[in-house]
Amino acid sequence: MKDRLRELVETLVPKGSVVQQAAKGGVWMTVIRVLSQGSYLVMLLVLARLLSPRDFGILGIALLTLSAIKKFSNIGISTALVQQKAEDVDEYLNTAWMLEIGRGVLIVVALFLTAPFIARFFGEANSELTAVIRVIGVSPLIYGLQNPAVVYFRKDLDFHKEFVYQTTSSFVRCGVGIGYAIVSPTVWALVVAFISVNASKVVLSYALHDYRPWPSVDRAALSELVDYGKWITGASITQFIHSEGDDVFVGWFLSATAVGFYQYAHRIADMPATQFTQVITTVTFPAFSKLQDDATALRDALLGTTRLVAVVAFPVSAGMALIAPSFVPVALGEKWTPMILPLQLLSVFGLLHAITRHFGGVFNALNRPDYNMKLDVVRIVCLAVVIWPATAQWGLAGTATAVIGVYLFPMFPLDVYAVSTLIEAHPLEIFHEYVYPAIGSAVMFGSLWYAHGLVDVSPLVELVLTVPIGAVVYTVSVLLLDELFSWGIKRDIRHIAAEVQS
Fold first, then answer.
1. 242-289 pLDDT, tens per residue?
2. Residues 350 and 273: beta-carbon distance below 8 Å
3. Rounded-to-10 torsion of CA 419, 268, 69, 143
4. Counting beta carbons within 10 angstroms of the beta carbon of residue 451, is it exposed (0 to 12), middle (13 to 18) or buried (19 or more)?
5. pLDDT score for 134
6. How many CB atoms lie within 10 A of CB 332?
7. Cis omega before residue 185 (within 30°)?
8. Which of these, 166, 258, 165, lies nearest to 207 by C-alpha position?
9. Which of 256, 417, 490, 499 is the most buried (most CB within 10 A)?
């Protein structure tokens, strides 16, 4: 048994061609995301029963504050090192380490001083939000202390090491969060769980790589990292505003409890499809970087990636919208029912986010990170026009509708046009990859929605039956489409399996 397990692990160690490494890396990253996000989801489901929506809202506001200052100070160190054509980036690591530590110190000081004013801005001056922000602010400093050589896990497609690094810290977070909540069911269970992730990663980073950083700064390396990172900084700022600006607006315009409902709905709607896309993005960015001088190979890789993402994202997002009315009361409890409609609406956002997220890897791989920032600026301007009147009219549902509307038009067509231009493809080639998954998902959604109207069962029974039946209906639909129109998804899956086994 041990020999068979060892043989399996050796087979999956990323080696061989770029395609083979990416395929095997994809297996590792899939397992990483399933275990990491699975343990995170378990923690959230348990804590949703023990804590109140307001507790999640308080943490949500603190994390928004932390995210804002992190994005405004992000110079894309990890991205810059992965994008480097050189295999050996040791000469940059000490400088990168010092930059991350310095950034962590600045964040700690900034959040400690501004926490009372931030709490007052959100109407929580007399709550525990100030203390939560100050404690959460320590996490970037802890993160900065980790071994900078962990960048090699992704740069070299060594995802078997990334597996240990990510999953272990995720299990620590789950255990710490649930354990603390059982003893003391307060917002501090969420805070301690969040900090435990970075603390465990520091220990793991030195255990998994033998490089040992030293406090020193190389001026040439510093200049190069900052020069590449200026667009990453800009993109990070605009990304925060467009991706989390709606959360900030909800917290300011409505309440901390509303933030709890909205962020939880956003997180759940975005998790299934986007976590799969995150696997693809993590694997394909270094692969795209290695193919940046081969236009034909890069184009084929992007189209194949888009097809694989779409075949998963469409049914998962459609399924989430379908099961939301039964999932929320069964999994979270009746106190969370106000988030059902926002969850259904945001499932559309989860789909759009999932099927375009990997485009950013192409922009970065081709040394055009400015595309991310420029597209985000357009998103921000459009969202700023509609979010206030929509939220004032329909509450959280209005906020979700505004976010979806902007993503549908003009952003989705613009994203496709931008990436197709870079890879020298026609936009219709990318849109074509979405057609068959959309048809299969529509068949699944329509048939199950009709069945729900015919049968009256409890939410638990509905939830238990809908998921497997939906998976079968979609799979049959996809296989039939593949046979009738030579779509090619079965061919792609067989090819990936062959590359993994080789």
1. 788 999 999 999 999 999 999 999 988 887 666 777 767 666 666 676
2. yes
3. -100
4. middle
5. 96
6. 19
7. no
8. 165
9. 256
Helix, strand, coil tally for the chain in percent (to 5): 85, 0, 15
- Secondary structure (DSSP) of 250-274: HHHHT-HHHHHHHHHHHHHHHHHHH
87 contacts 161 by C-beta, under 8 angstroms: no
**Contact (Cβ atoms closer than 8 angstroms) between residue 82 and residue 221:** no
- Whether 163 contacts 30, CB under 8 Å: no
Angle at 377 between CA 375 and CA 383, to 5 degrees: 105
Q: 């061989």: which residue's tokens? A: 16
User: DSSP labels for 4-64?
Assistant: HHHHHHHHHS--SSHHHHHHHHHHHHHHHHHHHHHHHHHHHHHHHHHS-HHHHHHHHHHHH
Two tokens, residue 414:
């613009």
In order of 97, 341, 411, the CA distances from 324 in angstroms are 44, 8, 26
- What are the angstrom distances between the C-alpha of 116 and each of 62, 113, 139? 12, 7, 19
What is the rounded average pLDDT for all residues in the chain?
A: 85
Cα–Cα distance between 325 and 329 in angstroms, integer?
A: 7
Q: Hey, which bits of 33-169 come out as E strands?
A: none
In whole angstroms, give the CA distance from residue 162 to residue 37: 15
Which two structure tokens, joined as six digits, stand for 80? 């810059």
118 contacts 65 by C-beta, under 8 angstroms: yes
pTM summary value: 0.81
